[in-house]
């Protein structure tokens, strides 16, 4: 059993919905990303999911969830979501939309409700590790929760 952490909007959101999860704490490193978190926790980076806040050409925010060891094709994401252009948000803009510091962004309990897109291969796993709402905290959950509770739409946008 992991030691208790302080509550985050993400963990509160999950508890309110009685969604099972476990907490995994690691020493956060700036710009370390999902690969660094996976390494520190002894996990496969492919099941360590990064939460990226992006925006379309109208500055409408969205979340894309991607394997920690892969990058997002923004061109394919734009095409599959029916917009002209998608780019990553500036860190301050992402923080304003999500309510989380960059490096601690979770798709759960965001300040603003945003559409969520998920790399479809993530849904093939029984459990994944995703940010729990603060730097240095991953939570282990069943990825079906992403579709069932966040209405995440599957896309295939990983760069080869």
Automatic annotation (TrEMBL):
Pfam families: tRNA_edit. SUPFAM superfamilies: YbaK/ProRS associated domain. Keywords: Lyase, Protein biosynthesis. The keyword Hydrolase does not apply. It comes from the Bacteria. Residues 34-147 form the YbaK/aminoacyl-tRNA synthetase-associated domain. InterPro entries: Prolyl-tRNA_editing_YbaK/EbsC, YbaK/aa-tRNA-synt-asso_dom_sf, YbaK/aa-tRNA-synth-assoc-dom. Belongs to the prolyl-tRNA editing family. YbaK/EbsC subfamily. This is Cys-tRNA(Pro)/Cys-tRNA(Cys) deacylase.
